[in-house]
Design brief:
The protein is 78% helix and 1% strand. The chain is mainly α. The chain has one domain (5-304). Helix 1 (16-45) packs antiparallel against helix 10 and helix 3 (79-106) packs antiparallel against helix 7 (162-181). The model is unreliable at 4-14 and 300-305 (pLDDT under 50).
């Protein structure tokens, strides 16, 4: 779920073989991000605490990203840009990830995955309120469709608790603020350096939380497998896959294809966790994804880390 990319920074589309390679990379990325909720549910079943899980996720992924950046000769952010990215990681991404993973304790994986995808609509509204950007009638209807879809999705859910729904919506709101906060700094520093600093900053915060509360590390092969899958497959590989796909497809197509994420979450939740999906949830999810696709293709800004 964390990419650190400004969608507007790349708009070049490719054709032929390179384009299909881009589609494959985005499919890998979406599968990784979409599967994260499933791995988190498994880790909870193995008595891994939320703070320990997120500390391991961020420290493993952050160190591997840093090593990859060193091999590529990555230029590290400095000065005010570095401080801004540290704040984005230590405050924004810590808050968003806490809400998302905490929501999974009280709500179905499929519902939490769909609620996160409210962020393009929220970003559109916040951009209009904070920066006086014109929404326009069509994008306004897309925002309304996303909200209506959310109402249907929540109303059709038979198992989630109100706290889980509230945490899911709060996570989407924090993520939207995080997006707007990074809108200007990310084009200057680049996606990979930004994602690395954000990850390591979040790791430092969760490391402090683990030290204060005491670790609750995985005590089984299943627990460690789930945590490592979150850090490597659902974070590191998902980020790299998105960057490769963005390079080959451009921002608009990459963002549109990334709407596979909640579909992956819902499908895996059904197959692996035995979660049920009602007709109202399917209808609501379809409305949310339709709104997201429209916003992605018509000027919605997004920064994914």
């Amino acid at each position: 779920m964390s990419r650190g990319v400004n969608w507007r920074s790349m708009n070049t589309a490719r054709t032929g073989r390179e384009r299909w390679q881009g589609v494959a990379w985005i499919a890998v990325s979406a599968t990784g991000f979409g599967a994260m909720a499933i791995f988190a549910k498994i880790a909870y079943q193995e008595a891994v605490s939320l703070t320990s899980m997120l500390f391991l996720r961020f420290v493993i992924a952050g160190l591997l990203l840093a090593a990859w950046g060193v091999l590529l000769g990555m230029r590290w952010p400095r000065g005010p840009d570095l401080l801004w990215l540290v704040a984005m990681g230590a405050l924004g991404y810590v808050g968003q990830s806490f809400c998302y993973f905490a929501a999974l304790k009280y709500a179905s994986a499929g519902l939490v995955g769909l609620l996160l995808y409210l962020y393009p609509a929220i970003v559109t509204v916040l951009s209009a309120l904070l920066y006086r950007r014109r929404i326009g009638a069509a994008r306004g209807w897309a925002v309304i469709a996303a909200l209506a879809g959310t109402a249907l999705t929540v109303g059709g859910d038979l198992h989630s608790q109100p706290l889980g729904i509230a945490l899911g919506v709060t996570g989407a709101l924090i993520y939207s603020i995080y997006i707007l906060a990074g809108e200007k700094v990310l084009p200057r520093v680049g996606a990979l350096p930004a994602a690395t600093v954000v990850m390591l900053s979040a790791a430092a915060v969760y490391g402090g939380a683990v030290a204060a509360a005491g670790p609750a590390l995985p005590g089984s092969v299943a627990g460690w497998s789930a945590v490592l899958a979150i850090a490597i497959f659902s974070t590191l590989l998902a980020i790299l896959g998105f960057l490769k796909g963005l390079e080959k497809l451009g921002a608009t197509d990459a963002s549109t294809l990334s709407t596979l994420e909640p579909l992956v979450t819902i499908g895996l939740a059904l197959l692996v966790l035995g979660e049920t999906v009602t007709g109202l949830q399917l209808a609501g999810g379809a409305l949310i994804l339709a709104a997201v696709i429209y916003l992605a293709r018509h000027g919605a800004q997004a920064v994914r880390d």
